[in-house]
Design brief:
Layout lengths: L5 E2 L4 E3 L6 H7 L3 H6 L8 H17 L3 E7 L6 E11 L2 E8 L8 H16 L4 E7 L3 H9 L3 E12 L2 E10 L20
Parallel strand pairs: 5-6
Antiparallel strand pairs: 1-2, 2-3, 3-4, 4-5, 6-8, 7-8
Amino acid sequence: MDPVTLTSERLLLRTVGPHDTDAVYDAVQDPDIQRWTTIPSPYLREHAVGFTEQLVPDGWADCSMFTFGVFLPVGGELAGMLAITMRSLGVGEIGFWATKEHRGNGYITEAALTASRWAFTQRAIDRVEWRAEVGNTGSRAVAERAGFTVEGTLRSGINNKGVRRDCWIGSLLPSDLGLPSTAPYLPAPHQG
């Protein structure tokens, strides 16, 4: 599919391309992004080129990963990155990071809600999962502010740079945003 552009109250979410390579490379030099995400570390310019020129367009083309650069509409400054990666039928996993200078403004929370709403209404996704390594309190705060329900901890749930680590997992459902699901949802009965 062709990439889409989304707008929210304060943001422009659009695909990234070769013209964004330098901004992506510069942003990802932040040690916190390299520590808490699964991107290569050290992050070389060739990684940014591969991301903007191959990984992102390929993900859109085969509908396996929908990546959005999170931009401020005035001036076009990169504030972060967000992707929804398809994991199984009707399930996408969201991942995101914010540039150091734009953390604490609620931009990534706003972007996560905007992209999730799009996934629910345009891509027939019925569950957006969020995962973050235990200890990544910034990511967890974004997920919780966006309305994700933290469901627990998965032991050895992610592989970050060759090391298995425990991770938190959460989900956002269409009903959390007042939207219908594409398939019926029957929650488990409350136990004791």
